[in-house]
Amino acid sequence: MDAILLQLLNGLDKGSAYALIALGLTLIFGTLGVVNFAHGAIFMIGSFCAVTLSKIFALSHKAAEPSGKDFLGNPKYDDVLYITEWFGEDIGNWMIDWSVPLAILFAIPIMLLIGYIMERGLIKHFYKRPHADQILVTFGLAIVLQEVIKYFYGANPIPTASPEALRGSFDFGVLIGFEPNAIIYPVWRLVYFAFSALIIGAVFAFLQFTTFGMVVRAGMADRETVGLLGINIDKRFTIMFGIAAAVAGLAGVMYAPINSPNYHMGMDFLVLSFVVVVVGGMGSLPGAVLAGFLLGIVESFASMNEIKAIIPGIDQIIIYVVAIVILLTRPRGLMGRKGVMEE
Amino acid sequence: MSIFNPTRRGLIQTGVVAGAGLALPTYLRADAHSGFTNAPTGDTVTLGFNVPQTGPYADEGADELRAFQLAVEHLNGEGDGGMLQTFSSKALEGNGIMGKKVQYVSGDTQTKSDAARASAKSMIEKDGAIMISGGSSSGVAVAVQGLCQEAGVIFMAGLTHSNDTTGKDKKANGFRHFFNAYMSAAALAPVLKQLYGEDRAAYHLTADYTWGWTQQESIQAATEALGWSTVNDVRTPLAATDFSSYIAPVLNSGADVLILNHYGGNMVNSLTNAVQFGLRDKQVNGKNFEIVVPLYSELMARGAGENITGIVGSQNWDWKLENEKGARYAGTNAFVQSFGEKYGFPPSQAAQTCYAQTLLYADAVARGGSFNPCAVGEALAGFEFDGLGNGPTLYRADDHQCFKDVVVVRGKENPENEYDLVEIVEVTPAEQVTYPTDHPMFAGGDLGECNPGA
Hints:
CATH topology of chain A: ABC transporter involved in vitamin B12 uptake, BtuC
Distance between the termini of chain B: 42 Å
Order of helices and strands of chain A: HHEEEEHHHEHEHHHHHHHH
Shape of chain B: globular
Number of helices of chain A: 14
Shape of chain A: globular
CATH architecture of chain A: Orthogonal Bundle
Strand content of chain A: under 5%
Oligomer: heterodimer
Helix content of chain B: 25-40%
């Protein structure tokens, strides 16, 4: 039972990342009708926002006096951090420790800007082109973005720690009546799950309860009529592209302590996220979230030794098997609407 | 009447024949008279360095390329000479190889077997490379080694750790300086016994490809010989990035040691996940839970950050070896000095093995008195040498594997900088990691005959 609950938690955690990325993909597809293969790269750039802020906080100058010798026997000068000089030891060290959560504030304007530039500079020229063209151009963009990141940060993963207070693991089992140490789960992964739920809730609330969101939803349902009412729907959709980029970027920022960011991480998530979108139903926001969590949980259970003993290798194909079954039984996905991607 | 009376058909026939001739690989035409592929005819000789320049091991590839460039400089008599000064063989004089200036071309393996073969093929056929070296993956090494055997050039393997490279996939034209999975296990076993005792239950997570399989087989055999039991061996997909689903079952499996037969990004992520799940703070069977990473890489240790602290593993070489373990490892400081002065940081083990391989090739040519790969192979086979940083070393004739001491390391508690992530726990003597040629883990292969090509 404890093993099942552990995998359920794992599934929810994996599903959080899938759902956040798929949510952004669906927002873009639902509003602009663009199949954005660069969305995984945006997630990756979000992670590198956390890396960048850590590096900014680690900027230093050399001490005036040598403290010893370096590996070649030359005088070695210690690094003196600017941040501790400017803000004092306590605040400086606190900022370094909490650099990942602080990177959320750093990443929001950057991701909005990147989203805006991507949409205005490139993607808007492909609105009326076939989906194949959109896929090609956004996939190319993704490769360019990851090569740019590799040029500046190298190919190897860069460790990015969560705050000291949120490291280690938490005895989750005790909370629900299990023996101590039966269900131990990393604290930061629980934080990630809570953060994802918050972001998903905020996006739905924004679309549901604000005038802006109402117009966007109306535009998603009937763009032409909304335009005839004198509303500049294109401008709002561009803003939605920026918001979708910010959602994926924030998912990336908070993911940085889970797995050390590397330039390729976006591609690792991209294919799975597209499967999530298709299973959830193209253009359906609740479908994307539901499918994200569903596939995350299914994938986790398929990794259990007991399951793999019965069907070897099932952990590597289960998501695609589920996708095939769902698309055979519900061709529009779990919550897909009629007419979307069916022309 | 002219004797040259071209007709359209004649022109086409001549064109086709000439075109086919030009399209032939270089090793099948001009130098056929020399008796071997890409025999150097001018005053230069070209070496081909095939390293990952893109893909997940691009940083290791960059370090390998730095080492190759340094080796070429030293062979041509530039710079401070590096390990040429400490190398036991004195056949090299700093005037290139047999008086021919060394130049090089580089290719990108992308850490993909097909791309690596294509780039090695291009360097051999188009650039006239007479030797291919480099790489950071056993899959790539086995593939390129096979190609070099067919083409008739020498392959001096870079970072490849699978038993198969000099086991079932060994080739007469291929030579490996780097250690292998069996040696890692043999070196680690006594240290594991000393640190963690004889009564342990190990759980293996293994990368699902040739290197992972041989690494797991080797370390399982070595730990079971100590008295450890094996609770489970779970194969993980090479493309996996989040290992939480594989780590979670370890928690309540009864195992008290987790052995990560992972390398590169797999190792960074699985180790990070294992630490996140609190494995290192756990007590099982009345003992502290331990994690072992049989093959260490400094560049990957950097990726794992503080999670690597206290984790035991093995290396082919370490830049602190001579300072900490004495003059037996002569050459280390000379290499670190050259490399450090040129690039500003200490070399990785990938750099050291590639540098050593280049010198060993050049030296074999000089001693054999020929660039013919069969003469080079003869000079390398059974060659005993010293002064290249690893202590006394034998290039065994039977399988073209180097036998030398293996370094057992542990993640350092308080590293002074990003290049000082590991401490040397012990250096296991070569005799303890040497195995018979017919050892079952290396069975099934045959060196075959040396192929000079052409």
